[in-house]
């Protein structure tokens, strides 16, 4: 082998080694996820959990205190207006001990004596009235003949009117004494006849509906006003959604709502009926106090589509706050902060180029672009913090 050939082989080996080193240490493309900037409908919406509830709910309560009998109605039963739904027995009279019984007997005796006294007073008042009327009649005859002055006649007539008033007061006093005697006798009679049948009070349905929930199933003694059962029409449902007050200010009555994850094959359509004006405080799972407000949603779909949906079911509500047609859209995962504005990485010929982006509207999943990006361009989703402008990228598999 000649010297020239040897030198050529060495040079070739050196060049091959240098080329391998350059190829080995050359920066490799960064694998990234990408998405395309599109043009379409931009929607800003609020997503929260909701609960279904019957719009018109009637709570049937006990009108009087007593012992409610076991209810025969069950959840789901249909009732007509005026149907008997519960029976309440008046509480039995308290048992009297020997001392209390003796006091009741003496109270009856005292009431009888008061009644007799009132009768005597009525007789006395009647006699006085008759005498006063006779005196007044005689005085009128004397005054007519001029044998008596007019002043004596006036005094006689006044005495007659006073006697009549006394007679009326005595009769009313006797009437009150009769009631007191009846009351004393009733108390003693209830103690002497504890086995008598108690009074029964019927509770009837105020409307034609279905039984939603039986609140008092077993026979028990209840107080006046205690709830017994709930009535309502399960077909007339609404959805109650509690949202943050900062999000509720953008919700308007009539806004479209998509009811999702309710158990059916397709979302249900709804409309916002009311945003309640009063907020309430709720502690989140992280222990943070939040101010929230109730948003009431009417279901638009016919009851046949949601026949299995009942009262108190959990659903997901997506309330549309704003909708703009023919907007340039970009996923929010492609945006990141750069100073006071927003930026995104655009893929051009396998190279990431950082570009400032002007955002007109921003929602939970997408944003509407006012400048910086054009439909059809490819942006990088969730760019890593190590990615720099000009770096080579490749689509992750």
From TrEMBL:
Residues 329-394 form the YknX-like C-terminal permuted SH3-like domain. Pfam families: YknX_C. Gene3D superfamilies: 2.40.30.170, 2.40.420.20, 2.40.50.100, Helix hairpin bin (1.10.287.470). PANTHER family: HLYD FAMILY OF SECRETION PROTEINS, MULTIDRUG RESISTANCE PROTEIN MDTA. This is HlyD family efflux transporter periplasmic adaptor subunit.
